[in-house]
DUF3307 domain-containing protein (Bradyrhizobium iriomotense), 161 residues
Amino acid sequence: MILSTHAVVGGAIASLFPSHPVLVAVAAFASHFAIDAIPHWDYPLRAITFKPGANNRRLLADPRLFFDLALIGFDACAGLLIAIWLFVTPATIGVIVLGALAGMTPDPLQVVYKVLPKQPLTTLQRFHRWTHAKRRLSWPLGISSQALFAASVSWIVLTVG
Ligand SMILES: [Zn+2]
C-alpha cells in the first residue's frame, strides 16, 4: 500500500488507545504487514527496487534516487497530514503522529535494507515480502480501493472509537 494509507491506518489505531504509546507503536507497525497483504497498487519507483537479488549498492550514486525520495516524502507528508486532520485532538497529537509514523516505518526500512543488508533487517525484509500481496491491481482500481479502505477504517474508528 502507499504510505498515505499506512499513515491513516496507523493514526486510526493510535486514536483507539491514545494513552498507550508503546502499544500504539507496536500495533501500527504490525498493521503495515496486515494491510500490505490486501491486493493493491503501488506507484513505480525509478531508482529503488525491492526485487530480491537486485543490486542497490550504487543506489546512493543514482540521480533518479532524488525523484524517488521526493515522491516518497510527498506521500508520507500527505498521509501524516491526513491522519492529523482526521484523528488529532489537542491531547493526542503526539500519539497520533507516532501511530502514523510507526504504520509507515516498514517501508523506509526496506530502503535501509537495500543499502545495508544486515540483520535484523534481512529477516524483516523477508517477512515483509512474504506478507505483501503477490497480486497487483491496476492503478485506477488499486488506488481507489486503497482510498476506500482508508476511508472505511477512519469512518469506523471515528464513529465507534
Ligand atoms: Zn510495505
Notes: Residues 3-160 form one domain. The chain has one domain: 3-160.
